[in-house]
Amino acid sequence: MNMNFENIEGATPIDDISELKPKWVITQEDLNLVESENISKAINKYLTRKISLPNRWFTIPFLQKIHRDMFGDVWSWAGSFRRTHTIPGVLPYRIRNDLERLCIEVKFWESESVELTLLEQAARIHHQLVFIHPFQNGNGRFSRLIADRFLKAWKYPIPHWPVDLGNNGKHRSEYIRALKNADKGELELLICYMEKHGAKDPKIEELLGNSFLKKFYKNERLRVLIKALQRRGNNMNNQKPLNEEISKKTGYLQ
């Protein structure tokens, strides 16, 4: 039987359908339908319920489980690391080690002072998962869900990713350009893309009044987060009362 699957810009081509579970799927439209239904169930499970902080769930087994729940109704290889080389993607033997480094990095952010806003952290997570490309397919959708889950864990607004992002067109071209820039160490385009579609860091005054974030960001960690927000242009315009509050809570006078 002939299969008719499109080549999408920046996506891993579908060359092997031997592990495709629904045998009636023969066109790209069929595949999009069954994958969308599967992903909708995973979104309900992983984005609409209470989410603990990333150090509780950002582990290799749990990341594999999320991918399996996203695609397991459609592909037998869901949740299993790929064994062939893809572009993008690190060599297969590097996948586990590179993912482990990312897991360690995410946990480090939660315990130490790092001059990154939480949106910058989410963008880095998203890019690194796409760059590593752990699975045979679905890596972009998986990476976006993980970045969204990271932001929601911190009670941040998440991007409303364009519904046509999986098709060739303006939205995908902008997205792929942002990811390719990130490959060169330049995350700004990806951060701006996420902001354009609804993600955002809080204003400094919002941060200082956020009872949830204040439980985790104190003293030096809070000072460094404020510094990261200022680096991104989130300034206070020398508002004296607010500067005094920052100084009192962090020992840091702007």
What is the string of SSEs from the N terminus onward? HHHHHHHHHHHH
Helix content: 40-55%
CATH level 3 topology of the largest domain:
Fic-like fold
Whole-angstrom Rg:
20 Å
The count of strands amounts to 0
The secondary structure category is mainly alpha
Rounded average pLDDT: 90
Total of domains: 2
Characterize the largest beta sheet: strand count, sense, and whether it forms a barrel. Answer: none
Write out the CATH superfamily name of the largest domain: Fido-like domain
Name of the level-1 CATH class of the largest domain: Mainly Alpha
Q: How far is the N terminus from the C terminus?
A: 68 Å
The shape, in one word, is: globular
Q: What is the name of the CATH architecture of the largest domain?
A: Orthogonal Bundle
Number of helices: 12
- Poorly predicted tracts of residues: none
How large a portion of the residues is in β-strands, by DSSP E? under 5%
Compact description:
The chain is mostly helical and 254 residues long. It is 55% helix and 0% strand.
How would you describe what is shown here?
This protein is mainly α and 254 residues long. The protein has two domains: 28-201, Fic-like fold, CATH 1.10.3290.10; 208-254, no CATH class. The protein has helices at 28-47, 54-57, 60-71, 95-111, 118-132, 139-153, 170-183, 188-196, 204-208, 211-214, 219-231, 240-250. Helix 4 runs antiparallel to helix 5 (118-132) and helix 5 (118-132) runs antiparallel to helix 6. The longest helix is centred in the N-terminal third of the chain and has 20 residues, at 28-47. It is globular and about 55 Å long.
